[in-house]
Amino acid sequence: MTRYPLVVPTSKEVIEAAKMRVIAAYNESLRMRGEFHLVLAGGQTPKVLYEQLVTANIDWTKVFVYFGDERYVPLDDPQSNAHMADEALLYHVPIPNEQVFRFDTALEPESSAKDYEDRLHASMGDRRFDLTLLGMGDDGHTASLFPGTDALTVKDRWVVANPVAKLNAVRLTMTYPRLNHSDNVLFLVVGANKGVALAQVFRGGDVPAGQVSAEYDVMFLVDQEAARAGGIR
Ligand code: 6PG
User: Fold this and answer.
1) Which end is more exposed in the chain, N or C (fewer Cβ atoms within 10 Å of the end residue's Cβ)?
2) E strand residue ranges, the chain
3) From the CA of 31, how far away is ligand 1's center (Å)?
C-alpha cells in the first residue's frame, strides 16, 4: 500500500484531478468486473466534483454508490451527506435507486448502523470497494472517525453509530476495517486550515485520516494552500 500526497495549485485542480481518477477507476472496474462500487465522501469539498460527474462518460446503471458516513438527520436535511450528493449528482444521473445505499436515519442510530452494515454485506459480500472518496477535517477526522471517539478502535464491525462529543451529536460511520477494504482511497484536501492535520498524516502523527489504508493506493489530493500550511512538498 502506498500513501502519498499529490499537490496541485488550487481547489479547481483538486476537483479536476479527482474527476480524472474517478473516471479511471470506473473504467478499470468496468473492464475487470463489469461494475463499479464507489464510496462518496460527505462535507462540502466534494460537492463540485459530484456536480461535474453528472456529465462524465459513465454508465450509471453499472455503478453502486455508498456513503462513508452520514449525519444523524433526515435525508432531506441540508446537513445530510446523502442530500448533498443527491442534489449535486444522484438525482441527475440514471443510477437505479436500489444501487444507491443511503443510511436509513429514520431508525435509531445503532439500528441504522446495523441496517447499513447488513445491506453492505448483501450488496458486496467480502468484496473491496473499487474507490473510496474521503475528506479530512482540520482535526484530522475522516468520514465520522473523529479523534478520541469510540469508533476508532472498532475492529469487528463495518458500520457503527459514533457519539462525537465535540459536535454534541451521534454520527453514522464506516469503520477502518470497512474503509480500508478498498482497492484505492482518494482524499480531497483543500485549504490552509487542513495543514496541521496534513502534516500529522505524513509525519506519523496519530490522526484518523492517517490511519486509513487500502489494498493499493491512498492518495491525498491537496491544494497548494493546504500543502504549504502542512510543509508538504
Ligand atoms: C462529513 C464528512 C467529513 C468531511 C470532513 C471534511 O460528514 O462531514 O464525512 O469527514 O469529509 O469534515 O469536510 P470538508 O470537505 O467540507 O472540509
Assistant:
1) C
2) 2-8, 36-40, 63-67, 69-71, 129-135, 159-164, 169-174, 182-189, 217-223
3) 31
Q: Ligand 1 test: best mutation among 48, 49, 71, 136, most atoms within 8 Å of CB?
A: 136
Overall pTM surpassing 0.85 (yes/no): yes
Ligand 1-lining residues (CB < 6 angstroms): 41-45, 69, 81, 135-137, 141-144
Full DSSP string of 40-52: EP-SSTTHHHHHH
Using alpha carbons, select from 123, 175, 118 the residue that is nearest to residue 144: 175
Q: Give residue 46 CA to ligand 1 midpoint distance, Å.
A: 9
Ligand 1 atom nearest to CA at 134: 11
The per-residue pLDDT for range 131-148, each reduced to its tens digit, is 999 999 999 999 999 999
